[in-house]
# Entry
Amino acid sequence: MAQHRLIQNYTDVLLSQLPHQLAEEVADGLAEAYANYVFHGLSSDDAARAAVTEFGDAQDVVNVFALGSPARRVARRLILTGPVVGLCWAMALIAGHAWAWPVPTVAPVLLGATLIASVVVLVLAARGRGYRAVRRAGTAGCVGLAVLDMAVIGLALVAAPNFGGLLTLAALTSATRLTCVVGAMRTVVA
# Structure
């Protein structure tokens, strides 16, 4: 049996904006509701309208899934914990006189740019409406912070003349966040 055009249009919106499996689950439920309305005597047009009304606007459904997206939750956690990691590094770098380390001038610029870009995409993920856009931004933010944490730990290990307590604390906070980010990536990408 061919799908009613209203049901097909609704399904097309879901498939264009949600992961395929998720869109198919919602579309299957919509098709079941449609079939149930037809079974109970509604015309094809009335059954399609009733099913679509029952499920709500397709874009609203997409937005609800975006609000509950794992990428959105991860982005919010990273935004909340980021200042703690940043404060640890600020204290360690100031106490360790990082400005005197033998580091190429481009390194701090690249680290700063990576930090800013990561924060921007994490904010986009935390505030975004489209499921796929939230997922892409969350993934980019996670990757950016992972690269930043690995780079800053490596740079401190190589360039710091004395790897003292504050640098150890900063490296441990970055390593902890890195572990969490890698674990969260499985959820975000899945």
